[in-house]
Amino acid sequence: MKAMLIEEYGREYAFAESDIAVPEPGPGQVLVRVAGSSLNPIDNKIATMGSALAFSPDLPAVLGMDVSGTVEGVGPGVTRLALGDRVFGCPGGVRGLPGALAEFMVGDERLLARAPRCMDLTDAGAMPLVAVTAWLALFDKAGLKTGERLLVQGGAGGVGHLAVQLGVHAGAEVFATVSSPDKASVVEALGGTPIDYTTASVDDYVDEHTAGRGFDAVFDTVGGPVLDASFKAARMGGRVVSTNTRSSHDLGPLHAKSLSLHVVFMLLPLITGRGRERIGEILDQVAALTDADELAVLLDERRFDFRDIASAHRYWESGRALGKIGVSVSA
Ligand SMILES: NC(=O)c1ccc[n+]([C@@H]2O[C@H](COP(=O)([O-])OP(=O)(O)OC[C@H]3O[C@@H](n4cnc5c(N)ncnc54)[C@H](OP(=O)(O)O)[C@@H]3O)[C@@H](O)[C@H]2O)c1
């Protein structure tokens, strides 16, 4: 089969098309004929930082965490999925688990689910990682409830725009920070209230949208100073969840308001092998909500063929994308 192998880590994006053997599904695994994938920031971090990240694969490697496609083989003991199923998920792209930038990949069936019936199969490859991350943050970590006020930092980003929709679905009043009118329109169209973080201070928007009280839950998809801003924006006793906490912070504000801080690291089940069932369960619910027209993934107008994955990385680096950068994988 054709695969795009990364041969060296770094900003040169040294991917090369290669012929490699079609993998055999092992126990609990399925063989997926790949239709789609997407570019997630973590794919870029692995491609550029390489061995500085403990979970980066040894070279040469097949990257690509998101996948959609059709099941063309099943290993021993597979029970959730069957030959011919249209599936999506995030079963690879880290050390020891080859990813989706190839015509076929094998994946643990617990990290996959049947794809939304209403979606084009290639498009479905842009949804799993961001949807699972947003779900883990809002429900498994923050325990978001109907009627609560939720603030999403980075509300038009990949994870953020799924979080806005899941928050609205949960019956929360959703607010989301953005930096441009385009992104504000995205948040509004999804049922949230945009906040331009380039003009409004945290105090301004806490006053305007919560009468100075603070948000019940804050989901930070950015990290760094935005995590500190999230502590500031949360109400007394509120919950803050972040996807980016490899950094040092003053926890004084957390103490002063008796906040709880939660971290999402959705790759852990891939890396450790533990807790994988939860990923499949969430994907099942994501697919059902998508088919019920309550969830959708926003795709940037540019999509890249997997043979042109280096250009997809460069486009992501440019910061010009609005929504997810889709990748199509076709024989
Ligand atoms: N830990 C995990 O399990 C996990 C899972 C998924 C993702 N992540 C990480 O989470 C981050 C977001 O992922 P993604 O896929 O959503 O990336 P993305 O699509 O690039 O979105 C990031 C968003 O952050 C916004 N942003 C940047 N600076 C901001 C600021 N100062 N205030 C508010 N918003 C700001 C950007 O919007 P503007 O252009 O409007 O600034 C952009 O929309 C990445 O670092 C990724 O690696 C972690």
Q: What can you tell me about this protein's structure?
A:
- With 331 residues, the chain is an alpha/beta fold.
- The protein has 2 domains: 2-127 and 292-328, Medium-chain alcohol dehydrogenases, catalytic domain (Quinone Oxidoreductase, Chain A, domain 1, Alpha-Beta Complex); 130-263, NAD(P)-binding Rossmann-like Domain (Rossmann fold, 3-Layer(aba) Sandwich).
- Helix content is 31%, strand content 27%.
- The chain has helices spanning 41-49, 121-124, 128-141, 158-169, 181-189, 202-210, 225-233, 252-256, 268-272, 276-291, 309-318, and strands at 2-8, 14-19, 29-39, 67-74, 86-89, 104-108, 112-114, 149-153, 173-178, 193-196, 215-220, 234-242, 260-263, 299-305, 324-328.
- Strands 3, 4, 5, 6, 7, 14 and 15 form a 7-stranded mixed beta sheet that branches. It has a 6-stranded parallel beta sheet with strand order 10-9-8-11-12-13, sandwiched between helices.
- Strand 14, helix 11 and strand 15 (324-328) form a beta-alpha-beta unit.
- The structure holds NADP nicotinamide-adenine-dinucleotide phosphate.
- Residues 40-42, 130, 133, 153-154, 156-160, 177-180, 183, 197, 221-222, 226, 243-244, 264-267 line the site of NADP nicotinamide-adenine-dinucleotide phosphate.
- NADP nicotinamide-adenine-dinucleotide phosphate binds at residues 40-42, 130, 133, 153-154, 156-160, 177-180, 183, 197, 221-222, 226, 243-244, 264-267.
